[in-house]
Amino acid sequence: MKTKFAKKEDFYNGTHQRAWWIVDAEGKTLGRVATRIAQALRGKHKAIFSPHVDTGDFVVVVNAEKIQISGNKDKDKMYFRHTGYPGGIKSTRFYELQKKHPERILEGAVKGMLPKNALNRRTLLRLKVYSGGKHPHESHQPQPLNI
User: Fold this and answer.
1) pTM (two decimals)
2) SS3 assignment for 93-114
């Protein structure tokens, strides 16, 4: 019995279609949502999944500003970035980042759960995160992703 592997050409000539999923993050736990999104972005839920081919789907996340984390992490959790200059490390607490840029929290969590390779960069382009309840992808008719 032969094992079928997906090929890159199958996704560009129309043999396989990429599905669109929508996730409402309101009241959900950050880690649990990010794990499920990362699986859908990689395509691990499909029978044709191959680790060396980009077989994933599109994921639209709404209400990112209402995502929750457990315990005292909203005050204790820190996010770091570097300006590129010597001594340029900047830190921000979770609740501050949630007020200013709530999309970055979920994007960073999903990015950390994806493999660190060239597929990672292509995969993250299919993640669309919005802080409000509206999104411009209604024409794709996204299906709800159960979490």
Assistant:
1) 0.90
2) EHHHHHHHCHHHHHHHHHHHHC
